[in-house]
Amino acid sequence: MIEVRGLTKRYGDVLAVDDLSFDVAPGTVTGFLGPNGAGKSTTMRMVLGLDRPTSGTALVNGRPFASLAEPLREVGALLDPGSVHPGRTGRSHLRIAARSNGIPQRRVDEVIDQVGLGRAARRRIRGYSLGMRQRLGIAAALLGNPRVLLFDEPVNGLDLDGVRWIRGLLRRLADEGRTVLVSSHLLSEMQQTADRLVVIGRGRLIADATTEEILRGLGNGRVRVRSSRSEELLAGLRDRGLAATRTDVDELEIEDGTAHDVGEVANALRIPLHHLSDVAQSLEDAYLALTGSSVQFAGSEPVAEVAR
Amino acid sequence: MTATAHDISAGRVFARTCAAEWTRLWSVRAGRWFAAAAAVVMVGIGTIAGSEADPTAVRSEPAWMASTVTAMPAQFALLALALTVVTSDYATGGIVPTLQWTPRRTLLGLARTAVAMTAATGLAVLLALASALAAYLAAGQALDLPWNAGLDALGTVALVVAGGSALAVGLGFLLRSTAGALVAVFLLMLVLPFLLPVFGYSWMSAVAAVLPGSGAAFLLIGEVPGMTTASSVTALLGWAGGALLLGWLRLARDDANR
């Protein structure tokens, strides 16, 4: 269990994390989403005691991480896979971790096999690809068989097999009753693996709900309807206060409404319908809708060249 | 899945952290290169000094001279070894996993300091012994090897390298940069103590006299005007203690690597 309460981090004038509170429950994969610079990594670093919060607390299994005597047996984390000494072998890296927490050395070989590093574990890390470094970081996170796991962008650099492996691993860890917090920019990935999403923007909490709730737009459903008398239907829907817009010749889309509402209106007006459905949002749509105003670093579309 | 980790004593955590730090030190080539450099300097110069000893001298010199004299240049390789134990973790970002494995920062600082000092000092004593033996063997009958003088010489080398490595470790924690800490060590241990008195101003000589390098030089080669054993030990250990204190404050209070 991870409990974050009023967590705030300020760097000079920059407020990186602003009064953030959320829980990460055991037995679920919790996705941690937000645009670049939203404060996800800073939050994870504060949970792990790497950065000092300006105010607020973060507890892991009811205790501050920095007070743990054998942290690898309680919490496994993958933050930056590049944060390793390149001149050391992968196996040595894991042996140091095991020694520091009183973990038997045979467990090092077990996790090396588990993450598929194999013989590469005896090579120096400077020769590793990003994907291999990710696997090494995941091996270190799993070393103490912990109840709580934090992964910051774990699928970065992994090939398709690696991505599928991570997907299965996260699911399996959560199904074993562990607490799993995963940050990722790959929203489609989150859609497939996360049971719950914590969405932040500019360091503030934007949403904390199940993935299903967020996909449904947090209660703001959309409905698509098709009718040969769409003009009459549009007027009727607007008369009843529903925000309907035309999306095609015979097609309308209604914000903040349900298929039931639209069906009732059509029936009252005796308008035949050819299609009526709730619109399933992609997580991308939901995410952009939630974080649209919270993007800190946004690019701009190239300006079309003026014809000369 | 494991049960909740039980509380274990700070002493046991410290012992485990020391074991991890020891493995960390010798699992990269840099540590072995610095040790090899110190060995070449101390044993090499000791052998050359022994072979050039005058066999016709009325009174034989002790071969232990080689230990202290060769430790003067070789200490810098050992200080660099101690320093990189700390700074390489910041240079590579390795401090992030390190603090995930040992989040009790004071304990990590103590273990890292103990391991770096033990490695540097232990190597210095072994190499000082090897240097004296090399000089003695190369000199034939021209040098003596009295064991009471040996204890003095090895003790002096141990004191100087222990103090210097503590200073290097403290500066490493404080500056978090290999280049910055190395420059600081060289300035304090070598450049300023020898350069400041050259200008001829009394206040510059007074400043030089309180620098750790002056203390180390007096203890090892004994040719630093105005220094005594007491002032040398005070300067060396005072700087070492101060650097360790400041380094600990930065480690304990600041973010891991920002």
From TrEMBL, chain A:
Highest taxon listed in the record's lineage: Bacteria
Alphabetized Pfam families for the sequence: ABC_tran
Record's keyword terms, sorted: ATP-binding, Nucleotide-binding, Transport
Coiled coil: none
Example of a GO MF term: ATP hydrolysis activity
Domain ABC transporter: 2-227
Family: Belongs to the ABC transporter superfamily.
The name this protein goes by in its record: ABC-2 type transport system ATP-binding protein
From TrEMBL, chain B:
Domain of life: Bacteria
Record field: transmembrane: 33-51, 63-86, 107-133, 153-175, 182-204, 224-249
Keywords per UniProt: Membrane, Transmembrane, Transmembrane helix
Protein name in the entry: ABC-2 type transport system permease protein
Source organism of this protein record: Blastococcus haudaquaticus
Species classification: Bacteria, Bacillati, Actinomycetota, Actinomycetes, Geodermatophilales
